[in-house]
């Protein structure tokens, strides 16, 4: 997972602490080092927490069940089309006094030969995920605001 300054996904933030101007979007790309074009990365859930623990119970979902939770604050640019997924989000500090936010995403590889991998988010749908296909959560941060 890589964080970017710009909507073209050209200028990435260096690893370590990322400081975002309050109210500015964060551009996120998630990819796998796979070469088989028959597979696609599908973001299942992306959420923020105040800790680096992806199991933290205090979560703010940006993407849930493959779809943005609030289209005014989250824009999915690419999901289920290739070996990378991309989205933009307006992040904000979470409650609790901790100035740091961590971003976590769970994803899976989808076989485009046998499945339609691109999520359809017009209406709420139930999902069925084979837990064997789901990869461990990917975490990045800390992120703070100025």
TrEMBL record:
Q: Which Gene3D superfamilies does its entry note?
A: Zona pellucida, ZP-C domain (2.60.40.4100)
Signal sequence extent: none
Record's keyword annotation contains Membrane:
no
> Which keywords describe this protein according to UniProt?
Disulfide bond, Signal
**PROSITE patterns annotated for this entry?**
ZP_2
Q: List, alphabetically, the Pfam families matched.
A: Zona_pellucida
User: Boundaries of each ZP domain copy?
Assistant: 1-128
Q: Per the UniProt record, which residue ranges are transmembrane?
A: none
Q: Which source organism?
A: Gymnodraco acuticeps
Q: Is-annotated flag, keyword Signal? A: yes
Q: What is this protein called?
A: Uromodulin-like
């Amino acid at each position: 997972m890589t964080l970017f300054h710009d909507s073209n996904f050209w200028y990435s933030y260096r690893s370590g602490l990322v400081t975002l101007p309050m109210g500015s979007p964060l551009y996120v790309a998630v990819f796998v080092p796979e070469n088989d074009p028959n597979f696609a990365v599908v973001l299942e859930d992306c959420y923020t927490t105040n800790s680096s623990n992806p199991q933290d119970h205090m979560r703010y979902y940006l993407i849930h069940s493959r779809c943005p939770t609030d289209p005014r604050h989250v824009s999915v640019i690419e999901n289920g089309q290739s070996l990378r997924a991309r989205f933009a989000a307006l992040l904000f500090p979470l409650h609790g006094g901790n100035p740091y936010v961590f971003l976590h995403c769970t994803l899976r590889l989808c076989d485009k030969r046998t499945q339609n991998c691109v999520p359809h988010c017009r209406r709420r749908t139930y999902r069925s995920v084979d837990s064997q296909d789901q990869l461990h959560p990917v975490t990045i941060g800390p992120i703070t605001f100025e």
